[in-house]
Design brief:
With 404 residues, the chain is an alpha+beta fold. The protein folds into three domains: 21-155 and 199-285, Orthogonal Bundle (di-copper center containing domain from catechol oxidase); 158-191, no CATH class; 289-403, Hemocyanin, Chain: A, domain 2. Helix content is 23%, strand content 19%. The protein has helices spanning 66-81, 90-101, 123-141, 157-160, 187-191, 215-232, 244-247, 284-287, 314-319, 383-388; strands at 21-24, 29-32, 44-45, 56-58, 106-107, 110-114, 250-254, 260-264, 276-278, 304-306, 323-332, 337-343, 358-364, 373-381, 396-403. A four-stranded antiparallel β-sheet has the order 10-15-12-13, with no helix packed on it. A three-stranded mixed β-sheet has the order 3-8-7, covered by helices on one side. A hairpin with a 2-residue loop joins β5 (106-107) and β6. α1 (66-81) crosses α3 (123-141) and α3 crosses α6 (215-232). Its EC number is 1.10.3.1. This is Polyphenol oxidase I, chloroplastic.
């Protein structure tokens, strides 16, 4: 998600182009042009729907039924049947992600700087607005104002944690991981010797093409749901940014009636005001206590990080997060990079996010047209882990990084 720290700019006006822009992408030259009739009218300001407007409920994807699937297919079919220059068409909706996230716009007064919402504080509000209009367009096309996307509940550890080996080794067979059955694990039989993740697809990890797959929107619906959850976790630290530069940043989207609408970050902070909510489902990772894998006596020091303060009071923990910062992470921009972060544990080969020692993940997707050397950092909270591992009295914390 927005894992890489980036610029904190002043309120950003989005370039309002009347001309098209053309640039190269890896698969073919693609013309990214504004939809037809852009110059026929000026954008209108966003207004919240009246309180009596039906509330759309986004349910978890695992609970979908045949009726919903037929409705979604009908809406997508109609969206894809719209003329390519209709701003509500599927290809134009997909191109929104390309334009905002992959160099389609330049920053006002800084023509050499791309306007990008990824890897910045605009990530969550932009994608919330993106899904908001996409969802309303689908509903309009089937005359159903209550139509809502399903969110892909991949943050549930029992349905989202996959063993990497099962997708890289054609001969691997493991019956103990979460999704095993005799048919799902016959990878060798179903796709022969072409078990190469780069050959199995890859467009979903590229910013310019990610929006071309409907599952992309369910994926981001889950990200949006997690943003809501994050705000409700008890403590004083989790609250919206108050910086005016962030709140007043604007975007442009077409609505279900082909009106060009100017929206602001500040109007996206409460999904209920936007007339949509999420289904109430179990959040296992929020309620369940993890169990330490090894005793503290068994630890072997490989890398010790000195703690600035130990034995913090309950009030101190509530008001200030203990954060581990790992900087100087250098890698090629066209390379996938992922590693797990563990604390107080040296035996991490068979460990996973269910263990208390698991502190976080650094993950970034390579872009074949990047050609950049990256230097990034990761921040991960240690407050809960240090307490649960009975490490509050330690002067230093053992940190282990495991490439995946």
């Amino acid at each position: 998600m927005a894992s890489i720290p980036s610029l904190y700019p002043p309120p950003l006006p989005i370039p309002f182009y009347s001309s098209s822009s053309t640039f190269q992408i890896p698969c073919k030259p693609t013309k990214r042009s504004k939809p037809k009739n852009l110059n026929d009218h000026l954008p209108v300001e966003f207004r919240f729907l009246p309180p009596g407007t039906p509330v759309r409920v986004r349910s978890a994807a695992q609970f979908f039924n045949k009726d919903y699937l037929e409705k979604y297919e009908k809406a997508l079919t109609r969206m894809k049947a719209l003329p390519p220059d209709d701003p509500r068409s599927f290809i134009q909706q997909a191109n929104i992600h390309c334009a905002y996230c992959d160099g389609g716009y330049k920053q006002v007064e800084f023509p050499k700087l791309d306007f990008k919402v990824h890897n910045s504080w605009l990530f969550f509000p932009f994608h919330r607005w993106y899904l908001y209009f996409y969802e309303k367009i689908l509903g309009k096309l089937i005359d159903d104002p209550t139509f809502a996307l399903r969110f892909w509940n991949w943050n549930n550890p029992d349905v989202a944690w996959w063993e990497k080996k099962g997708f890289t080794d054609p001969d691997w067979l493991e019956t103990a991981f979460y999704f095993y059955d005799e048919n799902k694990n016959r990878v060798r039989v179903t796709i022969k010797d072409s078990l190469d993740t780069k050959k199995l697809g890859g467009h979903g990890e590229i910013l310019y093409s990610a929006g071309r797959d409907p599952v992309f929107y369910s994926h981001h619906a889950n990200v949006d749901w997690i943003w809501n959850i994050w705000k409700t976790i008890p403590c004083g630290k989790r609250r919206d940014i108050k910086n005016r530069d962030w709140l007043e940043t604007t975007f442009f989207f077409y609505d279900e009636n082909k009106n060009l609408v100017r929206v602001k970050v500040k109007d996206s902070l409460d999904s209920k005001k936007m007339r949509y909510i999420y289904q109430d489902v179990d959040i296992l990772w929020l309620k369940k206590k993890t169990k330490p894998k090894i005793t503290r006596k068994a630890k072997k020091v490989t890398l010790l990080v000195k703690r600035p303060k130990k034995l913090r009071s309950k009030r101190e923990k509530e008001e200030e997060e203990a954060v581990l910062v790992i900087d100087g992470i250098e890698f090629d921009g066209d390379t996938d990079v992922k590693f797990d972060v563990y604390i107080t544990d040296e035996d991490v080969e068979e460990i996973g996010p269910k263990r208390t020692e698991f502190a976080g993940i650094f993950a970034t997707l390579g872009h074949s047209h990047s050609n950049m050397n990256m230097d990034k950092k990761i921040k991960t909270s240690l407050t809960i882990g240090v307490t649960d591992l009975d490490a509050e009295n330690d002067d230093s914390i053992l940190v282990t990084l495991v490439p995946r």
